[in-house]
Design a protein that fits this description.
Blueprint lengths: L19 H14 L3 H13 L8 H9 L10 E2 L5 H8 L7 H6 L11 H17 L2 E6 L5 E2 L1 E5 L3 H10 L4 E4 L5
Antiparallel strand pairs: 1-3, 2-4, 2-5
Length: 179
């Protein structure tokens, strides 16, 4: 199943109340995605315990837990100025980046890179390449100005989607064809 969600409406933010099922799903997502589960779970618990603001955003909570420099479960890029070389350079440093991908990664024609459409096309192409080696290129929505991709084995993709639904997260699974 290949999914490419579009950003939701501005009223998508929730109140500071976090349902038990949403909290449990966020914790399960951290356990699914984080290379250092204990460290990421601690960061998530801290975020959830302090989530009394009026516009709780589960995406931000998960991103905060997973971002840990090159030791994290995902990477952050501003969508403006993120080019294939920068994306590739950082993603290859993530612990979940498959060795098969680093040996065969082709960025294609990056000379023509200049638009958000190019970024979407690049991510879909990279998603297809990942799927060919049994990995899904996933992302967590972080607003129109950012990009938070990471890797997940294909066998864990259905669980990722189910947990994201329960946690009320907007996520991406990059690619252009069903497998």
């Amino acid at each position: 199943m290949v999914i490419d969600f579009l950003p939701g409406p501005a009223d998508r933010f929730r109140t500071g109340h976090i349902a038990a099922s949403q909290r449990a799903a966020l914790i399960d997502l951290v356990e699914l995605l984080a290379p250092d589960v204990e460290k990421a779970r601690g960061r998530l618990e801290n975020v959830l315990e302090n989530a009394s603001w009026s516009a709780f955003d589960p995406e931000d909570a998960l991103i905060e837990a997973l971002l840990d420099g090159v030791d994290g479960g995902c990477a952050y890029f501003p969508s403006v100025g993120a080019d294939p070389e920068a994306i590739r350079g950082y993603l290859t440093l993530l612990p979940a980046c498959p060795e098969e991908l680093t040996r065969t990664w082709q960025d294609g024609d990056i000379e023509a890179w200049n638009t958000e459409t190019d970024l979407r096309t690049y991510l879909r192409s990279l998603g297809d390449h990942c799927r060919a080696i049994g990995i899904a290129l996933i992302g967590v929505f972080c607003g129109k100005d950012g990009l938070v991709p990471g890797f997940l084995p294909d066998g864990k993709l259905e669980r990722f989607i189910a947990l994201a639904t329960t946690a009320e997260l907007e996520v991406f699974v990059y690619g252009s064809v069903d497998r």
